[in-house]
Every structure is written in C-alpha cells, then in structure tokens.
Amino acid sequence: MAHAGVVPSQIGDDVLGHLGDASSELGQVLAVLAAAGWEHPEAMRVGEGDRRLLALVHHLAGRYPELTVACPDCGEVNSVVLGPEWLPDAVAVSAWWGPGGGLRQPTYADLLALAPLLEAGLDAGAVGAELLARCTVGHPPAPATADDLARIDDALSGPLAIACVGCGRELVADVDLEALALEGLAARARDVDLEVHLLASAYHWELATIEALPDRRRRRLAALVVDGR
After folding, report:
1. Which residues of 210-226 are buried (b: 16+ CB within 10 A; e: fewer)?
2. Which of 111, 92, 131 is nearest to 41 (CA)?
3. CA geometry: angle 154, 180, 131, nearest 5 deg
4. pLDDT digits (tens, 9 = 90+) for 182-229
5. Does the pTM of the predicted model rise above 0.90?
6. CA–CA distance, 5 with 27 (Å, rounded to integer)
7. C-alpha to C-alpha distances, 209 to 78, 188, 204, nearest whole angstrom
8. Edge-to-edge, what's the strand order for the sheet holding 94-98?
C-alpha cells in the first residue's frame, strides 16, 4: 500500500494563513505545500504532491478528506475516506521504450503551463496533447499515447469506482483531490478563527497573544471555554 507521506511535526496551523496567497486552486496547493516546508513544490510529480497534500490535511485537521456519493438506484449515501487505506500503489516514475527517450510523470509545473490553455477554452484533446508533449523525454522509438501516460501517472484525482453499500451497484465518482484537500484545510482555518474568537471573548487577550499560543494549547483552552469551565 502506498504511503500517504510524513509531515514534519513542527508544522502548525500558521500554514493555513497561506491559503489566501493565490486565487487559483493549484496556486493554493503550491502555497500551502511551500509553507509546510517542501521547497519548490512546482517541481513535484503530481502524484507525489497529492500524497503530501493528503498527509498535510490529516496533520492539521486531524482527519482525511471524505468523498460522498449518492446511489441513484437505492438513494444510499456512500462515503469514502481518502486516507492511506484508499491510496492506490505508486507506479514507476517513468516508462522508457529505448535509448532514444520515453515518458515521465506530470509535475505541478506542467499543470501550471496548461492553465492558460484551459483559460483560452482549448478542448480537452488539445490540452491532453500538450501535456503528453511536455512529458515526452527525448525521441522515443514510438510516439507516446494518452494511454501510456495514464499507466505511469499516479495522481490521485480522477474516476473512483465503489460498490454501493445499500444495493451493491457500482458507482463511479470523480475525485478532485486538490479541491477536497483545500476544503479540509479551509474548514480547519475556520476552526482556528473560532478558537481565537472564543479566547478573545473569554479572556480579553490581544489577538497577538492568542495567535502566539502553541496550537495544541489554543485548542485546549478554546475547548474549556466551550465546556464552560
């Protein structure tokens, strides 16, 4: 089973303040990964970055993102926790056909380069062809195809097939890992704001004093305020 990644223990809630450093989804992902201490995250393979992003959500929010899918047959709402037990195995970093060249996995830098094409309204085929061209290394003996890239790309976004717990029907859900992870981080950021508000209201401390508290101590004190102790 693939490992979700390890986040340094000293990484704290201050990382959440970097969610506003960019307006785009990908920009926010890169901002929080950089704030967490991973240098030059744009150079990361997307699959590697996705796994680190999941680990960061769990480290800060205490839980992994959850995907819910309603069954159209029986109406059962199915949920999948996108944690280590769900992660597909990582695949080879590259696939080579011969001495002339081969294919590598996409990086976040590749996705950044594709953004203007998407904004210009190019169709999925044209964007996919550009990604394939960017990931082709050298001059392979045979042209690489989209299927070749799919075999070595271990990014976590994409279709996910699950069996409905109510009726057993196979359901296919579209996993947007970056969006789900950012939602989890944004929810934690709202919790931090609430903790600060509770402590400011209860103790009348200045915001700078509250924000300087270690994360765990701030959480414990806010919980005491909620309990009325």
Report:
1. beebeeeebbebbeeee
2. 111
3. 40
4. 999 999 999 999 999 999 999 999 999 998 999 999 999 999 999 886
5. no
6. 21
7. 43, 20, 10
8. 94-98, 101-104, 136-138
